[in-house]
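Figure 6 in text form: structure in, sequence out.
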């Protein structure tokens, strides 16, 4: 059977594309406004990538005939890390996405955003979306999914809306569980199972390219390294003495609460500030905010873009282009590919009218020392 095709709107660096291709779908084209993200996607996957503002759709977009459309319009206006301005012009890109879906008329589509989309501005945007979806010729469902339930080594809850014609859209069933062996499935993937094999680097590493210096220590690591001969994007930030002092004061499992009131510039607690995740659990959500990402669980430095990419479930072969800051943004804004893969498998099942077995790892993850 011919592989179902898809178009990736607001594609970023390619989380949707990476995951859907793992699920056996074929991309026709991708569209995004960010030039460095478009370079990353264009150099990692075959197919057309256009760097455009989708408020002015390019010629040829509506000549495409995809089976599926996916998209993640910017989330900053709905995120806990954003200022949540009701007049943020990016909020209107949700309507742009749905308008393009209507014109392309695929058999199925998926919209992804932060869970705050449901409750921001008193739920006004969510209620608007419900009315908008009711006017479209699709059976639709909205739901929340936690990426850790699908093998992604982080707790990352996302809001999804899915629409379909001629079949009922359903969320994918979880493949990983907190209780080891529950339903015969794999346990949740931990932070250390994701990153412990990467070469050890200190603050201020600017080259970021290394040979692997040890064997994989978990099934997840072996999967991430498949088809790749070296580590890239393993750069780190230089930290001032004051920032290093703060980093050193944060134990595993803690964050900004350790600093508030102790430093004149840290009088307010905010999510995403100076967090150090625990090794033996899924990481906190991968983020890049205020010039920071999570602290390494053992070393006194922030994570590298490659460590963030592992946490997001990008395989090591997916190289990110642009500056280090652009790399962080590309990685942390993306849909986790393993979550996208699970959604793609659910879509294929509906599109093909038959069950498609989930592509899981070959055996349960082993503990990394």
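Output sequence:
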């Amino acid at each position: 059977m011919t592989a179902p095709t898809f178009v990736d709107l607001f594609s970023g660096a390619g989380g949707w594309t990476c995951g859907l291709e793992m699920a056996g779908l074929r991309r026709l084209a991708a569209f995004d406004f960010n030039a460095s993200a478009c370079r990353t996607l264009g150099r990692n996957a075959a197919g057309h990538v256009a760097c455009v503002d989708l408020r002015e759709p390019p010629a040829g977009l509506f000549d495409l005939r995809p089976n599926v459309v996916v998209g993640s319009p910017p989330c900053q206006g709905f995120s806990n890390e954003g200022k949540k301005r009701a007049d943020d012009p990016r909020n209107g890109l949700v309507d742009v996405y749905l308008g393009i879906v209507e014109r392309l008329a695929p058999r199925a589509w998926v919209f992804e955003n932060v869970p705050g989309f449901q409750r921001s501005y008193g739920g006004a945007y969510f209620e608007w979306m419900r009315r908008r979806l009711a006017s479209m010729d699709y059976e639709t469902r909205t739901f929340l999914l936690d990426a850790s339930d699908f093998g992604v080594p982080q707790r990352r809850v996302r809001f999804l809306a899915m629409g379909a014609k001629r079949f009922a859209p359903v969320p994918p069933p979880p493949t990983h569980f907190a209780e080891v062996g529950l339903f015969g499935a794999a346990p949740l993937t931990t932070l250390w199972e994701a990153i412990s094999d990467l070469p050890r680097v200190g603050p201020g590493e600017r080259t970021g390219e290394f040979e692997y210096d040890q064997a994989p220590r978990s099934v997840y690591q072996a999967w991430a390294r498949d088809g790749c001969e070296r580590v890239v994007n393993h750069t780190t930030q230089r930290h001032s003495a004051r920032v290093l002092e703060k980093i050193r004061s944060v134990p595993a499992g803690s964050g900004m609460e350790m600093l508030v009131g102790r430093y004149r510039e840290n009088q307010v607690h905010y999510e995403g500030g100076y967090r150090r995740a625990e090794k033996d659990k899924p990481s906190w959500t991968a983020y890049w905010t205020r010039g920071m990402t999570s602290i390494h669980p053992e070393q006194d430095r922030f994570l590298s873009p490659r460590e963030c990419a592992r946490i997001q479930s990008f395989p090591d072969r997916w190289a990110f282009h642009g500056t280090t800051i652009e790399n962080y943004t590309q990685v942390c804004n993306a849909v986790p590919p393993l979550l996208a893969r699970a959604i793609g498998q659910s879509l294929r099942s509906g599109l093909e009218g038959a069950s498609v077995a989930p592509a899981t790892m070959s055996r349960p993850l082993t503990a990394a020392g």
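Caption detail: The first helix runs from residue 15 to 22.
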